[in-house]
C-alpha cells in the first residue's frame, strides 16, 4: 500500500519541482491542497505525511492563519512533516517559534553546515558536514522550544531543524531547478527579492544548472529518508491500533 502524502501549495508558480521525481520514485500517492483558496483543509489524519512547499507570502500572512493551525494539529498528532522554506517557517511559528526578516536576503547557491546533532539524525546522518544548497528567502525562523538544530549557514543561523521524531523544517530549497526560476520571474515578490539581494536572474540560473547533479543527490537522499520515516510512523500507528 503506497504512502499517502498531503502537499500544501500556496501558489501555482512555487511547486514540487525536483521533489516530484523523488516522490514518484517512492511510489507516493500525492494530494495537492491549495492553502489560499479559502477552502478548509481535510483532516490531517487521512494522510501518512505532510509536505509544505515554499511561497512568496510571509509566514504571518493572515491568509495562512488556518494553515498554521492545521500544521500544529497535524504535528502534535505525530504526523510526519517536511516544510520547505515558507513551509519550514510555518512549522516554526505553529510550534511557538518566530519568523523575522534577516539582515540580508539569502538568494542563490550557498553552503550550509550541519550540526553535531545532524550526524545522528535519520535524514542527515552520513551527509557531508558542508552541503551546497539553493536559498531564496529574506525571512529566517527561530527554533521553537524543544527543536533540534540540524544546520545553519553564514548568513542564516537556522537552516534546518527537527521537532519531535518526524517533523522537519528546511530553510533552503531542495526542489528548485533552472526551469523553476523561469516561472518565478512572474512573481512580483520574487522579483523584488532578487533586486534587494543585488542578484542577477541569468547568473542564478547558470549557477543552479552547474550544481544540479549535487543538488539532485541531496534531494534524493533527504526525500528517500523522509519517506522511510513516514513509512515507519504509519507502521507504528498500525501496531498501536492492533494493540488497542
What does the secondary structure layout of this molecule look like, with pairings?
Blueprint: E1 4-9, H1 19-25, E2 29-34, E3 49-52, H2 65-76, E4 81-84, H3 86-94, E5 99-114, E6 130-141, E7 148-152, E8 160-163, E9 167-170, H4 178-184, H5 188-197, H6 201-210, H7 212-243
Parallel strand pairs: 1-2, 1-3, 3-4, 4-9
Antiparallel strand pairs: 5-6, 5-7, 7-8, 8-9
Task: Sum up the structure in keywords.
alpha/beta, 9-stranded mixed beta sheet, 36% helix, 244 residues, Rossmann fold
Find the count of extended strands (DSSP E, 2+ residues): 9
User: H/E series, N to C?
Assistant: EHEEHEHEEEEEHHHH
Q: Which class best fits the helix and strand makeup? A: alpha/beta
Strand content: 25-35%
Number of domains: 1
Q: Main sheet: which strands, in order across?
A: 2-1-3-4-9-8-7-5-6
CATH top level label: Alpha Beta
Mean pLDDT: 95
Question: Given the C-alpha coordinates, what overall shape results?
Answer: globular
Rg over C-alpha atoms, rounded to the nearest angstrom: 17 Å
